[in-house]
Design brief:
Structural class: alpha+beta
Distance between the termini: 48 Å
Radius of gyration: 19 Å
Order of helices and strands: EEEEH
Strand order of the largest sheet: 1-2-3-4
Number of strands: 4
Strand content: 15-25%
Shape: elongated
């Protein structure tokens, strides 16, 4: 299994599908799901895209990571 799509050379990310109990690889550019043998299974639906966007937005709103304050140390060798 390569990490890059054969069609568009886009990066693939593993996604576990609960209903199918299988891990499929999703291409970021062409939105195709492939299996471990590089066979295109199906395209990502609009409903799945909206679910991912909604979960991402909820995660960003629920996490409050403090901003890192980078300071240069003075007088060090």
């Amino acid at each position: 299994m390569t990490l890059f799509c054969k069609q568009c050379d886009g990066r693939r990310l593993p996604k576990y599908i609960q209903a199918e109990k299988n891990t499929l690889w999703l291409c970021e550019k062409c939105k195709n799901f492939t299996d471990i043998n590089d066979i295109i299974i199906r395209e990502q639906t609009d409903e799945e895209r909206e679910t991912v966007k909604r979960k991402d937005k909820e995660f960003e709103e629920s996490t409050n990571f403090p901003k890192a304050n980078l300071n240069r140390r003075k007088g060090v060798n």
